[in-house]
């Protein structure tokens, strides 16, 4: 049986193209399972998984929990706001105490970039990154690429533009790496203040014109303005951001082609995307959420086997 080249999922940077393709083909099988009346398989019976969320989440947390339950794993959930980390315990001590209760895998979201890599050097369990600060969000990129493949047949050769707050976005970095490994062309579009200088070194095109970027791409993946990570003001106001960089229906109507609209969520309607775009027939935003469960089942299953 084919297996992943990595023991943990710390970032897309660690995956080969073959790893990503294996995750996607395994997700195809689990998507078929999820279409059945009985959506549960025994693949991870007797495997115990801890979901450690040190940052807020709706989609990722619920999606991982559902994926684990569909695979028959035993799960424990941890939320930092009600834990003893508030009493000064370190991350490594917290996780080692949880692992002492015989936990096999850890799914973690943490605000500190690199927290998962640090943990992987100190603990004896498989680690999956559910988002580390503005660094990586690998399962989001895997489900985004899966959703493009599902809608357009393949990712290779497609033009994908990421719009908005690239500077603070772990989704952007993971998407750029994942899409490039699958052979897509990538552009980023937003105000200069929200596009870090290093992105051009990643081999992506850069645009500051929404019209130009929409005319270029097959897929528009619109990202949220992350005010919670902005310690200085990078944009004058949300109203002005919407005026110059928000994706509106009039933009799509002006194109001589149809493009696919994506958003990882949570959406700020009327800021980076208008409702009649987010809810349009071109939008696959809820398909992304649906595909998240099958994609995460694939990641959990393959890592448990590795
Ligand atoms: N896309 C995403 O990571 O959403 P949550 O923050 O709700 O998990």
Which helices and strands occur, and which strands form pairs?
Elements: H1 17-34, E1 48-53, H2 59-70, E2 74-79, H3 91-99, E3 105-110, H4 115-120, E4 126-132, H5 138-152, E5 159-163, H6 170-181, E6 185-189, E7 205-207, H7 210-216, E8 219-222, H8 238-245, H9 249-253, E9 260-262, H10 275-278, H11 285-305
Parallel strand pairs: 1-2, 1-3, 3-4, 5-6, 5-8, 6-7, 8-9
Helix pairs in contact: 1-11, 2-11, 5-6, 5-11
This protein binds phosphoric acid mono(formamide)ester.
Notes on the protein architecture:
With 306 residues, the chain is of the alpha/beta class. The chain has two domains: 12-136 and 292-305, Aspartate/ornithine carbamoyltransferase (Rossmann fold, 3-Layer(aba) Sandwich); 138-288, Rossmann fold (3-Layer(aba) Sandwich). The chain is built from eleven helices and nine strands. It has helices at 17-34, 59-70, 91-99, 115-120, 138-152, 170-181, 210-216, 238-245, 249-253, 275-278, 285-305, and strands at 48-53, 74-79, 105-110, 126-132, 159-163, 185-189, 205-207, 219-222, 260-262. The strands form two sheets. It has a five-stranded parallel sheet with strand order 7-6-5-8-9, with helices on both faces. Strands 2-1-3-4 form a four-stranded parallel sheet. The longest helix is centred in the C-terminal third of the chain and has 21 residues, at 285-305. It binds phosphoric acid mono(formamide)ester. Phosphoric acid mono(formamide)ester (CP) binds next to α2. Phosphoric acid mono(formamide)ester binds at residues 57-60, 131, 137, 140, 264-266.
